[in-house]
Amino acid sequence: MLVVIPDVLSADEVAACRATLEQASWVDGKVTAGEQSAKAKVNLQVPEGSEAARTLGDRILRALGNNAEFVSAALPLRVYPPLFNRYDVGMKFDAHVDNAIRGITGLNTRIRTDVSSTLFLSDPASYDGGELVVEDTYGAQAVKLPAGSMVVYPATSLHRVEPVTRGSRWAAFFWSQSMVRDDGQRRLLYEMDLAIRRLRADVGDEHPSIRSLVATYHNLLRRWAEL
Ligand code: NI
Question: What is the pTM of this model?
Fold first, then answer.
């Protein structure tokens, strides 16, 4: 299941992020790649734990904490501090699956990567190529979003970034460990929550069937969540 979340950052916030990234030191993206994916990965990254990555990452995580769509789709237990990457002309990332477990730099903790998120930071008209292609249960889906918008997808998915042929594609990306490890269960909960939210908007909170549906949602979450 791919979920697109528009306007995670406003145009002003994107511009502020980009201004900080302009000043950042970019290094070879192979530093965070596993042994297999290092061969496939040709891009640049802001070093993990650097001042720029921490400041911008915190800003993004604050914006996401209030984002009902992200919380509903990812059911996050722990979120990895966002990283920032960049694909200039000729850069790409061939098909791969991300590492299942990641240690958080500077902290004595690890997360299981259940959900991947990519937040686009470049105007799509400013570059060609650079689509994020995710092999979903419904086949390959190519994603290229406006700056400030984000896609959330299961980290179990094979995915790639197509070569950039003009301009430069900048993005933030990060993983979440979900309270619900199983993609299928997480999808059912998301679809149910979405339907409940639409129903509430249409018929109001007081309808007794909405209370039953909300109760069932929480009882399923209680059954499936691991903390
Ligand atoms: Ni990846």
Answer: 0.94
Q: How many residues does the chain have?
A: 227
Residues of the chain scoring pLDDT < 50:
none
Supply φ then ψ for residue 197, to 5 degrees: -65, -40
* Distance, CA of 152 to CA of 127 (rounded, Å): 22
The predicted-structure confidence for 187-227, as pLDDT tens digits, reads as follows 999 999 999 999 999 998 889 999 999 999 999 999 999 99
Going from the Cα of 55 to the center of ligand 1, the distance in angstroms, rounded, reads 22
151 Cα to the center of ligand 1, angstroms:
13
Ligand 1 center to 38 CA (angstroms): 11
Model pLDDT for residues 87-96, shown as the tens digit of each residue: 999 999 999 9
Which residues are close to ligand 1, an ion, with C-beta < 5 A? 98
